Amino acid sequence: MLVSVYLIAITAEAMSGALAAGRRNMDLFGVSLVAFLTALGGGTVRDIMLGNFPISWTQHPSYIYLTIGAGLITMPIARVMHRLHRLFLLLDAAGLIAFTIIGCNVALELGYSIPVVVMAGITTGIFGGILRDVLCNRTPQVLRHELYASVSLLVALLHLLLRHLGVEEDINILASFAVGLALRLSAIRWGWSLPVFSYAPGRWHG
Amino acid sequence: MLVSVYLIAITAEAMSGALAAGRRNMDLFGVSLVAFLTALGGGTVRDIMLGNFPISWTQHPSYIYLTIGAGLITMPIARVMHRLHRLFLLLDAAGLIAFTIIGCNVALELGYSIPVVVMAGITTGIFGGILRDVLCNRTPQVLRHELYASVSLLVALLHLLLRHLGVEEDINILASFAVGLALRLSAIRWGWSLPVFSYAPGRWHG
Amino acid sequence: MLVSVYLIAITAEAMSGALAAGRRNMDLFGVSLVAFLTALGGGTVRDIMLGNFPISWTQHPSYIYLTIGAGLITMPIARVMHRLHRLFLLLDAAGLIAFTIIGCNVALELGYSIPVVVMAGITTGIFGGILRDVLCNRTPQVLRHELYASVSLLVALLHLLLRHLGVEEDINILASFAVGLALRLSAIRWGWSLPVFSYAPGRWHG
User: Fold this and answer.
1) A139 neighbourhood in chain C, CB within 8 Å
2) Which of B45, C40, C147, C172 could connect to B127 by a Cys-Cys bridge, CB 3.0–4.6 Å?
3) Burial class (CB within 10 angstroms; exposed 0-12, middle 13-18, buried 19+) of A76
4) pLDDT digits 0-9 by tens, A118-167
5) Which residues pair with residue B196 across a beta bridge?
């Protein structure tokens, strides 16, 4: 199940990368690269951070075709996608959760300590979006918007807690998805967000 | 021959990095760092992506001196270089092709599959320019301008095809250069570019 | 001693990262991430560059808590910190020097050549600040301001020279700190800076 969700997730992430590239008037190649990095950049940064070579996607060339293909197909259908906005938010949320769980599992298998496992999960979840925004020259959205990275953190902690309690992996994954999706979709629906830190030196703030 | 072209190429790339740093009013140190990363950043990202440690330039300290020296010498001669614009476009094109072929060969020797080999070639070719633009806080030019990254892609594919057909390496390199240079210089001359994807949410597009 | 200075330094760097995130109105999570990367990003880039896996901080989870904690505590006390500006410049300078010496020593132990050792020292010293600025979407300050990266370069060279001359490590570290702090604080006090390269194509420059 995690694999199916993962494939859907990298497709959705690639499309979000393509749209961001389109906002910067990039060409076919730029769209492909940003789509690829948005989808697979989180796992790449995680693998480098964990010293986990060869990097996962280099062993699965089909992921390269899938993400670049998804990026390119976004160009003619961008207008239609606009109407499927809600579906994309759902797929994106599912992707965030799948990426987080996969990231935790990779670090666990390599024997890293719990704090590093959590960071590997979050890194897999959010770094694709950060790379997308850095390449498109804007402040990373995931660090500013309604609950997003926090959902990744919570899913990582929940997944590790259930694992520690001896819950079977399949049930664990289902529970992590249920809680993560509920939280993320609620955050979108009601605009939940973390407190924002606004610091303007020279003026009053707090 | 590839080595000579490579040395000329990293010099030219370092100079292009120095000019970009100058546009941001960086100091001597910033110019050196941006020059270094523009010239050797593509190979660095490739080596990290392939898990190819130690990273190439750490075994060739002379490359460090050459690129930083080229960056610093750009400062007094920037005015003159303006007149040599065409020469620089030629050197830059040669560098793009040399970087691409070298990147493919590194990945081939490590036993990666063809799609990864192609990506290693392109990464070596274009990531120096991407790092330059990210450090100088602008949207990467190589993802927007006339055929550039596409030339890298085509050279990588051609090089691998000729290799697959059993063409001798020297002739292969010459052919790759001939086709790559012809394509890149034609693109500059006649302004060839890939279709651009312009996406402005909320407005009509397509 | 180096370890104590290091802990103070990553705390100070984390706080500087949090302030930068606050200027971009990031949320709690963004503040934590930028604080973490500002403090530990330099060492991370160094370890990746040297192929030194596992990356240092993954073996010291307490560093994760310390830097994220320092980032979060910055939010309520930012107003007070404004008055402690000078103390922070001092801690930041001490951190720059400690990071540089540690970076050199890591590369030395791995058997890299002197130019790479120097680059490892500088990378550890300044890359946290560069990552902070790239994430906050601004041109890296360390590449533009009064003597900063140059202090890192000088400390690296001095440290290696004293080591080459057979000076005992403790005295070497003290001397490196004395010279580095004197230079950095003088540069701040009297506004010393490196020559700036301003290049504006199409206009006169020099």
Assistant:
1) 24, 26, 135-137
2) B45
3) exposed
4) 999 999 999 998 899 888 887 777 776 668 888 999 999 999 999 999 99
5) A27
Q: Classify residue B203 by its DSSP letter.
A: S
Instruction: Name the region of B196 (left: φ>0; alpha: ψ -120 to 50; beta: rest).
Output: beta
The amino acid at B139? T
Residue A37 is encoded by which pair of tokens? 């990095």
Q: How many residues in chain B?
A: 206
DSSP 8-state symbol, C195: P
Whether the Cβ atoms of residue A2 and residue A102 lie closer than 8 Å to each other? yes
At residue B31, what is the residue type? V
Using CB atoms, which residue from A19, A61, A79 is nearest to B116?
Answer: A61
**Amino acid identity, residue A5?**
V
Angle between helix axes C85-109 and C169-190 (nearest 10 degrees) is 140
Cα–Cα distance for residue pair C71/C76, rounded to 1 Å: 10
Å between B133 CA and nearest CA of chain A: 9
What's the pLDDT score for residue C203? 43
First to last CA, chain B: 46
Please give the structure tokens belonging to residue A75.
Answer: 């160009």
CA nearest to A46, candidates A57, A36, A35: A57
* Measured distance CA(B118)–CA(B154) in Å, rounded: 9
Q: How far is C140 from chain B (nearest CA, A)?
A: 7
Contacts of C79 in chain A (CB under 8 A): 204-206
- Whether residue C69 lies within 8 A of chain A, CB to CB, comes out as no
Q: Would you call B111 an interface residue with chain A, using a CB distance cutoff of 8 Å?
A: no
Contact C27 A119 (CB under 8 A): no
Tell me if B194 sits within 8 A of B151, measured CB to CB: no
Q: Is A147 exposed, middle or buried (0-12, 13-18, 19+ CB in 10 A)?
A: buried
Cα B155 to Cα B146: distance, rounded to the nearest angstrom: 16
| Cis peptide bond upstream of C115, omega within 30 | no
For residue A29, give the nearest of B48, B194, B199 by CB distance: B194
If 0-12 CB within 10 Å is exposed, 13-18 middle and 19+ buried, where does residue B128 land?
buried
Work out the pLDDT band at C144, boundaries 50, 70, 90.
Answer: low
Please tell me the distance from the alpha carbon of residue A183 to that of residue B6, in angstroms, as a whole number: 53
Side chain identity, residue A130: I
Burial of C22 (0-12, 13-18, 19+ CB in 10 A): buried
Chains in contact with A via at least 3 Cβ–Cβ pairs below 8 Å = B, C
Distance between CA atoms of A146 and A123, rounded to whole angstroms? 18
* Residue C130 structure tokens: 């560069």
Cα separation, B173 vs B159, whole angstroms: 7
Using the structure block, give the residue that is written with the tokens 């990368």: A17
Rounded to a whole number, what is the largest CA-CA distance in chain B? 54
Give tens-digit pLDDT for B39-63: 999 999 999 999 999 999 999 999 9
Chain A residues in contact with C54 by the CB 8 A cut-off are 50-51, 112
Q: What is the pLDDT of residues C29-45, one digit of tens each?
A: 889 999 999 999 999 99
Are B46 and B123 in contact, with CB atoms under 8 Å apart? yes
- Which residue in chain B is spatially nearest to A136 when comparing CA positions? B139
C27–A144 C-beta distance less than 8 A:
yes
B27 beta partners = C196
